[in-house]
Amino acid sequence: MQDVWRWVAIVAIAGGCAQGGGGPPTGVDGGASDGGVGDTGMLGEDCETNEDCPNDGIFCNGVLTCQAGRCVASAIPNCNDGVACTLDECVLTTDMCQNTPLSRMCPEGSTCVPGTGCVEADSCEFDDDCSGDGIFCNGVEVCLGVCTSPGDPCDDENSCTLDECSETPGTCTNTPFEDARTNPMHCGTGANDCVVCDAPTAAMPNVVAACLDGACGFECAPGFFDDDDNLLDGCEVDCPTAGMPDEPDDGFADTNCDGVDGD
């Protein structure tokens, strides 16, 4: 993915935009209570206008706009189908939403039916008793007392790749994250060590998660400055001109709150 993924808001549970090891939004949806898109306080590149936020043309990424001095994503596709046992995702290769049933999310003895949810499954004795549901992206059904879909056939067990399953034509892609060293959504060196960076605690007001050369950390939210060089107690100074040029002036003012005046 391109560096623009730094600004993509994480999807906490589901209804997101892609599947993979710590990648763009994805997951098993939570039914009617799942909004599909959420905000974790992770922000992107500095900007002054929308023109400073070039879009990558990828449908699943939404559209970049400049808000409070940072590029953030908007109009992100919401793929939530309201069925609690489906994997809802936006497939980059098709620019479409895909809702894959996962019977392992259903109670024992039930199976997941697209558009319906968990229903009672047929009993079986051998794998051959399971004719399959014809859905590639939930794997080949096996007999565990009832016919059960094992789940995602495309997981390469590498946290630094974006794993995607395309129902049509039934293929997998595993794409390494190009922005692993800068994206707090999948922060790492690219050697199967990518993680989602922890969000700041309530004791750290005006702080957001950051990925600094492959290591998780924190930084001040746009418009704020850390006055005491201790991010653990938050960013104290509300500076609406943070990130703007600090022009020389007679008062030697630090107008962009970077700790250095412009003279």
Report on this model:
The chain is mainly beta and 263 residues long. It is 0% helix and 24% strand. It has no helices and 15 strands. A three-stranded antiparallel β-sheet has the order 1-4-5, with no helix packed on it. It is elongated. The two termini are 40 Å apart. 40% of the residues are buried. The N terminus is likely disordered.
Mind sketching the topology for me?
Elements: E1 27-28, E2 63-67, E3 70-74, E4 86-91, E5 96-101, E6 110-113, E7 117-120, E8 142-143, E9 147-148, E10 161-166, E11 171-176, E12 207-212, E13 215-220, E14 224-225, E15 237-238
Antiparallel strand pairs: 1-4, 2-3, 4-5, 6-7, 8-9, 10-11, 12-13, 14-15
Strand order of the largest sheet: 1-4-5
Q: Determine the strand fraction and express it as a percent band.
A: 15-25%
What's the helical proportion of residues?
under 10%
Shape descriptor: elongated
Q: Summarize the biggest pleated sheet.
A: 3 strands, antiparallel
Number of strands: 15
Taken in chain order, the helices and strands follow as EEEEEEEEEEEEEEE
N-C termini distance: 40 Å
Outline the low-pLDDT stretches: 1-27, 30-42
Name the descriptors.
263 residues, mainly beta, three-stranded antiparallel beta sheet, two-stranded antiparallel ribbon, elongated
How do you describe this structure in short?
The chain is mainly β and 263 residues long. The chain has strands at 27-28, 63-67, 70-74, 86-91, 96-101, 110-113, 117-120, 142-143, 147-148, 161-166, 171-176, 207-212, 215-220, 224-225, 237-238. The chain is built from no helices and 15 strands.
